[in-house]
Amino acid sequence: MRLYIMRHGETAWNVRRLFQGHSDIPLNENGIALAEVTADGLRDVPFDLAYTSPLRRARQTAEIILRGRNVPLIEEPQLIEIAFGECEGSPALPTPEHPDQDPNLRNFIVDPEHYKTPKGGESIPALCARMRTYLDKLIHHRELQDKTILLSTHGAATCALLNAVDPPQGYFWRQGVPYNCSYAIVDVHDGQPELIAENQICYSPV
User: pLDDT higher for 98 or 45?
Assistant: First the structure.
């Protein structure tokens, strides 16, 4: 089994640096363009099937990557992003539009160990547990052992999945928040996942 774990393309809320979580924000024009460039970069990858988060930004990304292919795309609720509850739509980092920011929300990016879950949100440990459970189920699926699979998901969800494969040295975000349309490659042999590459992109970052 080979997994391509991909973060969705750019959205308007990414540009504005707002927490999206479960808010169903579509790709913007640049996000569509990034997905199209990535589709071209992965055109020779023989995907057998794909799973996507139910949120539009992830589904749109997967649909663009798979355009023109006869590859099943299956909605998987476990691939949804971490929820921020009452803080969805709040700034992730200070911006001219939002110069004042809740220090706790800043912790989510710069000091995740001290981040406190907002009301109605999901904690980072709960996200990690959810992703470990999903990954374990996927990699032990007997009928998928020889498949190449696309997982279209989100930034925090991607890191949680990769942390289940390759535990980080004390920092949830590993190399930092993944680029839009970046992907990681995980190979699975005899139920054992191995991280081959991460935060790969098919375009030049600005």
Answer: 45
